[in-house]
Amino acid sequence: MKEYNDLATKCLDAAFKVHRSLGSGLLESAYKECLYYELLQSGLTVQKEYALPLVYREVKLECGYRADLFIENKLIVEIKAVDALNDIHLAQILTYIKLAKSKLGLLINFNVVLLKDGIRRVINDKPQSP
To answer: Domains, the chain, ranges and CATH?
Structure first.
């Protein structure tokens, strides 16, 4: 889990940098692009709009699930720019974490005065093996 925690720390450092520079009030897509850029600049492997197929009874279904960022094939990051995070956002990232067979995800809402108030760390305590 240390590896996941280290990735989460690097991601959050980059998110704080983006938020300090841009503030709140922009579109989600702007924050995603800026965070993506910062993470690449830090030397991490990052996939944007990472497709997550659903497997049902051994059939792979392309349902259109896309995680905003997938870092080092381990950490799912879902970015929001909303008034408040709610249960549907948590359900969304938990689904993405499970489909990616990951252990950890970050839900980051940039539409807050203090970014620390917009961060939710979501753990999948039952990851499947790849």
So the answer is: 2-123 (3.40.1350)
Cα-based distances in Å from 93 to 23, 49, 82: 23, 13, 15
Q: Which phi and psi angles does 89 have, rounded to 5°?
A: -65, -40
- What's the pTM? 0.91
**Contact between 98 and 69 (Cβ < 8 Å):** no
Strand-pairing partners, residue 120, are 107
* pLDDT 10s digits, 39-97: 999 999 999 999 998 877 887 777 778 999 999 999 999 999 999 999 999 999 999 99
Here the tokens at position 111 are 């539409």
Is 114 strand, coil or helix?
A: coil
Per DSSP, 102 falls in state -
Enclosing H/E stretch for 28: helix 28-41
